[in-house]
Amino acid sequence: MKLIDLAALDHEERSTADIINSVCDELGFDYASYATLNPMKGDVQGYANYPDEWKIHYGSHGFHHFDPTIYQSVLSIAPVDWGRFNHDEKFNAVFRDANDFGITPRGLTVPVRGPYGECGLLNVTRDCSDAEWEKMKKHVMGDLQMAAVHAHDTVMQSGVLAKALYLPSLSTREKEILQWVAEGKSQQDIGDILSISHRTVEVHMRSGREKLGALTTAQAIGRAIGFGLIAPG
Amino acid sequence: MIIVIDGINQDKFKDVLDEMFKLRARVFGDRLGWDVNIKDGRERDHFDDLHPAHVVSINDSGDVVGCMRLLQTTGPHMLSDVFHSILDGDAPIRSSQVWEATRFCVDTKKLGRGRGENSVSYVTSEVMIGSFEYAKAAGVLDSIAVIDPVMNRVLQRSGNAPYDYLGTAKPMGKVVAMAALMDCSDERISGIRDYASIEHDVFLSDEEALELCARTKVQEKPGVANFDHQPLTRLEKYFVEQMNSATTKDEVDAVLRLIETLSDRFTPEQKTALLRTPRAFANEA
Question: How many CB atoms lie within 10 A of CB A199?
């Protein structure tokens, strides 16, 4: 499982960076970050405006393997105040260190769920008093919901994810077979065309579906066309 | 009182959730005749596996008396994936500030008429207040509820009328389903609070809820019929067995009558112990 800093990949994600920065500037947070779990590989990708030293420390200590602000927050439909993790050993392990980098454990995570069940997380922190925090939450929660969905859609539509993960993973055979399916050929036909058994076709198709995170072949074809991996039939 | 159970605290409230799924089976399966999957007396569907938030009302005895399920409309939800025919072919609403409410029900067996604390009306309002306040705190502005015409009338009568409907009401098996829109606003919440005369904070913290469950469970624990650890007589054993195997209220009543009839066969202490033993079962039925 890798931790991928989307900012280092491509210029397109700059808009995600813009959203993250404007959340801090306009809503009054110290730091903000966006993260999403890749459903197939379990990688965590994201963008954060935390100090670079903290990002490096976080990644090199493997906090993304167990940070409850990621793994617990995906289990909620409502924004999760990190106060809920007060007694969580894993949370305390991450934020004891965070404190050394001037990052407060006072924060919250807004979970976003997409139509395929994929989840994105917008995290914000602010070092302030209890009263100030409660007041702030009431005031900005609606804006945070919108910012979260905006950040999520930007990452999902930017193709950064696809470039980082989806594209390299399909084999030539898998692409070839999906292309023939898109042309309307049956599994048996494809086996005959490629001179392989229909069972082999099935194995490649299953693998292709899994790599695309698709439940059905029809869905896999849709996604493969969407990513430009195959041409419409 | 209201407990919100989500994917984070679900492990703490396994028993409450189990009771809730049983209540849903009784209401949607038995009473309303909806086309739902019931397994082992519990109604669950695959949306329950997507970590929704369950807004659950429990009474002072720790029994589940009402519930509602909330899902984000940006993710998979019933209107987009199951009830789409209601929308007449239109795309479903997808918004981080709109949640979907489904499986809204109250226990009409445990709750009475009138407007008091243990009434259908009170618990209906309590669940609605809990849902709207929870949604509002999450920055959610509106909720879309999949309901039937009966629930629609209940809402209209209780200071909580939907402000609009999406698509058109459609028959779903034996019932008609409709998609009602309600704002999660202070005005609506105070309207429901006025109607039900509920002024207090309806939410229990996780700790308070766990304490209530623990307290009531100890009281209800059936245990053995003799508190002084005397060996059970054969007659006592018989009654405990009968009580344990009783599955309906009639059967429980029959055992209670038999204990009463044969009460000259044992001491008053034994009788009290025996009569206390089945309490929990009587509630269960």
Answer: 9
Query: How does pLDDT run across B108-143, given as a tens digit for each residue?
Result: 999 988 888 889 999 999 999 999 999 999 999 889
User: By the CB < 8 Å criterion, does A215 face chain B?
Assistant: no
Q: Which domains does chain B have, with CATH numbers?
A: 2-217 (3.40.630.30), 221-284 (no CATH)
Q: Which residues of B are less than 8 Å from A116 in CB distance?
A: 76
This complex has an ipTM of: 0.71
Tell whether A78 lies on the interface with B, counting CB pairs under 8 A: yes
What is the residue extent of each domain of chain A?
A: 3-163, 170-226
A79 and B6 within 8 Å at the Cβ level: the answer is no
Closest chain B CA to residue A146? B96
Specify the fold of A3-163. Beta-Lactamase (3.30.450)
A23, A144 in Cβ contact below 8 A? Answer: yes
Whether residue A77 and residue B51 make contact (CB cut-off 8 A), yes or no, is yes
CATH class in words for A170-226: mainly alpha
Instruction: Tell me how far apart the alpha carbons of residues A154 and A158 are, in angstroms, rounded to a whole number.
Output: 6
What tens digit of pLDDT does each residue of A27-82 get? 999 999 999 876 666 678 888 999 999 999 999 999 988 999 999 999 999 999 99
Residues A130/A104, Cβ–Cβ less than 8 Å = no
Q: Give the C-alpha separation, A38 to B250, whole Å.
A: 55
